[in-house]
Structure formats: C-alpha cells, structure tokens
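To whoever picks this up:

The parser on our side crashed when reading a file containing two proteins. I've narrowed it down to the boundary between the first structure block and the second sequence. Both blocks are reproduced below exactly, byte for byte. First block:
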Amino acid sequence: MKKHLFALALATFCIFLTSCGDQLCEQEVTYIKATAKYANLDDLRIDDLNETPRLLKSANKIYLSNDLILISERMEGIHVYDNSNPENPVAINFLNVPGNNEIFVEGNILYADSYYDLLKIDISSPLQANIVSRLKSAFEPQFFNTTGEALIGFNEEVVTEQLSCDANIQQNDWLYFDFQAERIDGSAIPTAFVSNGNGATGTANKITKAKDLIFLIDRVNIYTFEDKGQLSIASQKNPVGWSLETIFHSEDHLFMGSNNGMHIYKIEDNNSVSYTGEFFHATGCDPVLPTEEEVAYVTLRTGSDCPGDENNISVVNIANLTNPSLIQEITMDSPYGMTLHNDKLYVGEGTNGFKVFDASQRDQIKLIETNRDIETYDIIVHPTDNNILLFANPNGISQYSTVGEEYNLLSSITY
C-alpha cells in the first residue's frame, strides 16, 4: 500500500457525485481508483510452495545468506536465487506465498505473512521448502462483503472524471472505495534488505524475532506471536504508535521508526511489551538503527511519499532508554535504509546515490564519501565476504566488490 493514502467511503463519494450537478464550478481530475477485492481465505491457502522459477517483476524485501538470495515480490511470493557465485546468481525456485508483503529469516526458518495468515517455512532445502506451521487469521480480517469473503486488496485503475471543485480530490490522489486495508502497510522504501546470514538485520523490517517471540507491526499496532515449534498468538495486538514504519530488535527492547520519531518498548517476561521511551522529530519517514554502544541512528526523509520538509540523520543517545537525547544532526539529501559495517555507516539516498560516514566514534559520525553513481535505497554487506556490498534500488539488486572507494560491479538481478 502507498503511504499517505486516505480511505473514502463509497457512500460519501456518492454524495459528492450527486451534488455535482448543483455546483457552478467543476474540474477534470485524474486519480487512482482502488476498488476492494474479496475472496474466501480457504481458497487462497496453498501448502505446495515450490514452483519453477518465475520472471521477477518487482522486488519488495530481500534476504541474503551465505549462498542464497530470497527476493519477495509483493502479493505474489518469494524468488529463490543460488548466490554461491556472486558474479552469477541463478534463479532456482519460486515459493508460492500469495498475499505476501513481509519476510524475516532466522537460520533456516523463513517467516512470512500470507494475506491474514502467518507462515513458518523451513528453507534448509531451498528446492523443497515446506510449511512447518501456519497460524490462520493471525491478523484478523477487518472487512467482509455480504457473502462473508474477506478483503484481500484492491484493483487499481487511473480514471479521469469531471468533479465539483469542492469535492476535495486532487490530481493523482489515491481513493479507496469501500474500505482502506489496515493490514501491513507498505514500506516507504521501495526495495529493502531484511537480514543476512551473519546476523545483520536491515533497517526497513516490519517483522523481527527475539528468542521465541515474533513481532510484526502494521501502521499503529504491534502483533506478538510465539514460536515453540508451532506458531501461536502470544498476546493481543497492542497500539504502540502512529504511522509505524520499521521495527528493530536489540537485546530486550524493540525500536520502532514512525512518521514522528523513534518509539522504544521493552519485551516483558509475560510476552507483552511495555512503553519505555520516545525520541520525537519532525514529521517524515525514518528507519532506526540502534547500536551496542548506546547510540541509535535515525534517518528522517521527506518527499512525495513522506510528509514534512526535512532530510537528515540524527545520532541519538540511548543510554537512558526512557529519555533518548539528540547528540548530532546531519543534513542529508533523501535518506532511506542504512547499515553499519565495521566502523562505516552506509546510508542509501535513493536517486541521490549513497553516503558513507566514519562511525568509529559511534556518537560523532563524519561524512567521508558521497557516491551519486549508484542509485541506492538500501545497502547490506555480504555475510561471508566483507568486500562485497549489495545495493537495492527500484530496478534491481546489484553486488559490488569494494576496494577503498572503488566499487566494481559483479552482478545484477534486474526487473
């Protein structure tokens, strides 16, 4: 789902239409009309995951291990690539997971949503992945049609209509007829890394795992599940913020990035979460990256998909989690995902390339490189070869070998 979309009830819109004839002023407006789709959820539950490789049309979240790359394609499933030779990744399988938006991998276990279900998938044999556990209706459907079918998405079309000038509809708006889905809202980062085999975790996650607990966020809630072989609901969903975007786990706390700041919650012994503290900033989009040195990096980005007018990276003191404080703020062009590799902080800046900071002193970072040649929305280091970096952009995933400030292209997976 796109950011900053608003729901418009069909009945209300009909009022606009019926009143148009009474208005002296009309305007021609082109907008995206999204009409709700419904289905019987049992018909969508597929247990036979493995298919021959499909053409990759777009990428959502990306997982990287020693010799595998998993690329989720929104609402379709997960593409599996053999990356044992980074110079020539090869598509070897496709996991048919309809309704998938988010993935998270720990070891040989892949967690993925499938419409309203949560799946636990064993990927120890990449060509014969299998569902270990399916938690049905882990996320309760919010809307049903008159025959009991659940809302599963929207059909989108561009329409041009003559509307009243006071209809409060602007060019290029997105309008949702019937309802707006509350399930996992799409990240403002088009393509992002979620984790890799050396334990590094991406900063654009909406799922994370701590011990036996799995945490997943939508725009305002955090869902908590337990994995003791089979998945189960650990606690009821908790409203924890406003316009949540990312979640990051560090020790016994969860750090969540939202449009208005960083929210910190503690994982309690009874599997619940409790409020600890917050760091507020101007409205915008922001991943969060806490470190072991009691410092967190918080990016703030604005643009067509994010409100506000500021672009920067904040260095935040989290020694006192109840009262995080700003240490340093650096102006950026358009920061997206980031990764900390050794003593360097890499920050993707979309069409503006990426920046590299000296983070040897975690609380005082210094810009050492700006590269505008590689469009970058997220960056992650290869789990076994520290000289290989992977860059994600809306057109593909590229692997580069690095020597100093030189980046040599090894391979690309494009779409």
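<<boundary where parser fails>>
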Amino acid sequence: MQIQAPKGMKDVTPKESYKWQYIEKLMRSACAEFGYRETRTPVLEHTELFARGVGDTTDIVQKEMYTFTDKGDRSVTLKPEGTAGAVRMFLENKLFADAQPTKMFYLYCPVFRYEKPQAGRLREHHQFGVEVFGAPRASADAEVISLAISILNELGIKSVKAKINSIGCPECRPKYNAALKEYLKANYDELCETCKTRYEKNPLRILDCKEKRCGEIAAAAPKVLDYLCPECQAHFEELKASLDALGIEYEVDPMIVRGLDYYTKTVFELVSTEGAYTGTVCGGGRYDGLIEQLGGPKMNAVGFGMGMERLLLVAESFNPIPEPNLVDVYIAPVGDEARNVGLKLAGELRKHGVKTEFDHVGRSFKAQFKYADKLKARFVAVIGEDEVKNGVIKLKNMADGTETALGIEGFAEKAAELVK
C-alpha cells in the first residue's frame, strides 16, 4: 500500500511553491512598510498555554487540538493558532522590558486543528499573523486592519468589506452576559449541547455557534454594543474615527465575536465579497488581558491572522499568480569533453547571478532543446565537439531564435550581459 499524507494535510510541490513565495514576499514587504519584524515560534507548545490562553470554552480546545503526552510525561499540543505562542515568546524573552510597542509578524506558522477539511482550510494549514503589544490606543487596531487590507489589495482582492464590533471588557462584559443569559434562558432546551455548556461559562461564545438553530436564536439576542462601559465605548468611537482617517470603509456588525476567548473590545473580520470564494479571509481583534493572564505584566495587545491556503484560493480567483523565470541559460552539452566545459561554465554563470540549468541526464541535442523549452529557458548554450575545438559557443535566444557566438574565454561575463 502506498503511503499517503494524513487526511487534511497537503503537500506543497515544487511546481506550486512559487505561489507561496510570491505572497510571502509581498507580506514581508508590507510588514516592513508598517514597521513590523518577524518572529518564529515552536510548532509544539505545552498544552496549558492554549487551555489558559485560547480558552476552554472554544471549539479549538474542546474538540480540535492535537494533544499528546511526550516521553517526559508532559502534555504537549501542536499549536492550533499563532497568538498564544507569540505571547509566550514575548514573555519568556522579556520583550516587555523594551520600549513599547512591540510590533511583530509571523509567516512560517503551521497550525493544526482536527476539523472537517474544506476548501482553503485543512487540518494542517498555515497562518500569517501580526501582533502589536503595548499599544492601548484604537489607532493600533485601525493600523492592523489597514495592513491586512493593503496586503489583500496588493494581491488583487479589491472587493474586501471590513466588519467591526466591540465585545467590551471585564468591566462591562458581565452585565452583557447576564442580559444574554436571561434572553437565552427561554430557548435553552433548543441550544446544541456545546452551547448549553457555554451558557454558564461563556455565553458570548453562543453567538459564534455555526449550528443553524443556535444561529437563529442568537440573531434576536441583545447587542453587546448596547452594554459597553464608557471606556469601551470611547475606544470603539476612536476606532471608527481612525478608520475614517485612513479612508477605510467599514460596517458595524454586532454579531462578530470571533472564536477565541481572549478577545476584548475590538473584534473584526475582513470579508471577500466577490470571486470564487466569498467569506472571511482575515480575522482579529484586541486581547488586552492575555499577556497578564499568561503571567506577564498588564499590557494591551491587538492582532490578526490570515489562513495562507484560503488566501491563495481567493487571490487566484481574481488574478493568477505569475510564474517566475526559473532558467536564464540552459547549457546543452553532448560528449564528455563538452560536458566538462559546460559544467565549468554553469558554475561561472551562477557566480554572475545567472539562473543556469545543466543537462544531468545525457539527452541528445534535440531532447535537450525540447526540455529547455519546457523549462521556459530564455537562452540555450549548445556545446558539442566543434564548439570545444573552435573555442566558440552559440547562445540561442529562445524567444526570437537569434544566435550569438561567444568565445569560451569570458563566456560567462558576456552571456550575463546579454541575459540581463
């Protein structure tokens, strides 16, 4: 039986990797413009980090985490999201002692959730995320939304709608929870079993349930915006003013609560409204209590996450990602002496920054030209017995068929000039 990848986990083949590199390069460039620096955290963390940080009423912790006991009898988990690990890194390395804010992003972030695989969302998928620590003003919330939108726009995803909400803080949330529970009490028996559990621990999470009947019940529930304390209300008004200042259109959607327990105040989603995929392509918000909850100082934080697989799906529904030029010069030798000369020239061309391919199979001239054309090589250097004897190599332009004769001595330098 042929071994296959586990269900919900997918390879990125050499033929596809340029798409990832294209988006990653764009993301790095955008993050640099906004002043964010990269972080990388382990794929494996202690389970307690997610139980405390993500929240034990979330679907992630209750149903989806890949958790196991290691050989040291410790409970460890493949990370199901990026923020908790970034906060742990921030605390463990005492970055809170630096001048704030700390602005970071992560690109290589595989996350694991045991859920039903779907288009753009696999059991192992990859997140691009940004986190800002130590920035209390709502302008930071607006900045991360602006960064996300600029990346989506650069990818050609123009039809993006920003939806925002505020879910309050520990001061005003209890009043809202009480009102929500009072409303839900009459429909308690119709809630799904998961939401019945949430009813006591975190009723706000019921608003995020994907079960049809729970959604119908939640639609008429009291709105959290009506219960905000003066501080949360002022923060939300500043967010709207900041988005206005940045020229970002938005819609206030009181049903957005996000799927993680650590959120406070601002929550938002960016939704693609056209193309092959319509739905959320980015989500995030503020989590002012998480750093303190995980043992650090009292400090504000805000960020977002984007699923890379879903982003690729959406981006290519608007504009195919351009394939890069992989081969400038294909060296086509025939004969042992010609191969040695060609191998030497390949090394010299690469030192001049020329993308060079060399025949390692032993094909005929005809077969090598066919293969070079398949690789979309811009030029082919033919090296046979006559070329070695005469010290002259013909460099053929594959676009127009013209040939340029170059001496073997100084070939690499002259060829590089032609290529560039």
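After patching the parser it read the second block fine. The first helix runs from residue 17 to 34. The mean pLDDT is 92.
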